[in-house]
Specification:
about 150 residues, 6 helices, about 35% helix, five-stranded mixed beta sheet
Length: about 150
């Protein structure tokens, strides 16, 4: 008999699928904002709408040898978490009290936006080299849950 995935597994699987739309050459990230078991928005990392994708133009951070987790301002891309918040805003969807499912731990810049957007819980799959991000989430009272893949 077919075993249905839990809600958490379902939303994390969708975040992984969303990440496949990423145009970033270094890391493919997907994010899903959920309220009451309903997806309110998704986002993946890549260049803003109407701008040449990094996959087509090349990666300036890579060319300059900038390590992951540093100098975010030198990047053409918008992070998945940022895009999920932006899409919700564009469509007039409230983000207060939502849960974020994300393929990676959000960076500090995204964490600040998530806190101000009212995200209550962050479920993340992969690590990201930004220790201050976790500290800020903790200080703001946002629940941080490392993802553990469920048996199928």
């Amino acid at each position: 008999m077919h075993q249905r995935p839990s809600w958490d597994q379902y939303f994390m699987d969708i975040a992984v699928l969303v990440s496949t739309r990423s145009t970033c050459l270094r890391r493919q990230v997907g994010a899903v904002l959920v309220r009451d078991r309903q997806i309110i928005s998704t986002g993946y990392n890549g260049a803003p709408s109407g701008v040449t994708h990094c996959a087509d133009r090349g990666c300036l951070r890579q060319e300059l040898g900038i390590p992951s987790g540093e100098r975010h301002e030198i990047c053409r891309g918008t992070h998945a978490e940022q895009n999920a918040i932006i899409q919700a805003a564009r469509h007039g969807t409230v983000t207060d009290g939502v849960t974020l499912y994300c393929t990676h731990l959000p960076c500090l810049q995204c964490v600040k936006m998530l806190i101000n957007a009212g995200v209550e819980t962050v479920v993340f799959r992969g690590e990201y080299p930004d220790p201050l991000a976790g500290e800020l989430l903790d200080e703001a009272g946002v629940t941080l849950i490392p993802w553990k893949e469920e048996p199928r």
